[in-house]
Amino acid sequence: MTRSYRFGIKFFLVLSFFGSGLSAACLYFITSSFENIVLSSVFEALSSLGIGLVFCISVELFPTEYRGVAVSIGSMFGKIGAVIGNIVVGVFIDAHCMVPILVSCSFLIISGLLVLTLPKTGRIAIK
Fold first, then answer.
1. What PANTHER family would the database entry show (predicted)?
2. CA distance 109 to 39
3. Calpha distance 63→114 (Å, rounded)
């Protein structure tokens, strides 16, 4: 077994989702602009890592003839969610600061738990 499969993609995906969820939760407790920059950077780095890993694991989950469509549909819904998310966060951030932070970290932590239910596909032919 090579080093790339020692932990597997699922491990890093769970780590990415939990880490970005916890850093999003910590954004509520910041008191300085330096803390804001550090936590926002950690959140963005782990979220970006998670997005790339979602594409990698989706390629492993779907057979060859469906991979392109699956990744394209996932990307489309991700971009639609990003646009709608920016609008919703803009509406709620002034009136209810806790709501977008709580929703973001809840979705990320729930996603990390759901990743644990994915099948193990490393080095297995998909039928």
1. SYNAPTIC VESICLE GLYCOPROTEIN 2 (PTHR23511)
2. 17
3. 21
The distance of Cα 44 from the centroid of its chain, to the nearest Å, equals 10
Query: Is 105 in contact with 25 (CB distance < 8 Å)?
Result: yes
Q: Find the helix packing angle between 9-26 and 98-115, rounded to 10°.
A: 160
Q: What does pTM read for this prediction?
A: 0.80
Residue 122 sits at φ, ψ, to 5 deg, of -60, 125
Q: What is the pLDDT of residues 21-49, one digit of tens each?
A: 999 899 888 899 999 999 999 999 999 99
Q: How far apart are CA 42 and CA 39, in angstroms?
A: 5
| Residue 40 host element (H or E) | helix 33-61
Give me the mean pLDDT over the 55-74 stretch: 87
* Phi, psi angle pair for 63, to nearest 5°: -65, 160
Burial class (CB in 10 A: 0-12, 13-18, 19+), 70: middle
